[in-house]
């Protein structure tokens, strides 16, 4: 093996978060979640942790023309 490979392995090699690399026995023991269920959990987590970005005053003024007041999140 090239000496450089172990150094860059952790940075360059990507394991997909939805890929299950467990044995079938461990997967079943952990609840046997499907890829769809794992993806749904990830989406819910991202939506739950989302923070609206701060807008500059000029951006808010531009948006006021197009977004009805009743849609305002405040």
From TrEMBL:
It comes from the Bacteria. Keywords: Methyltransferase, Transferase. One of its GO terms (biological process) is methylation. The keyword Methyltransferase applies. InterPro entries: MttB-like_sf, MTTB_MeTrfase. The keyword Methyltransferase applies. GO terms for molecular function: methyltransferase activity. Belongs to the trimethylamine methyltransferase family. This is Trimethylamine methyltransferase family protein. It comes from Eubacterium callanderi.
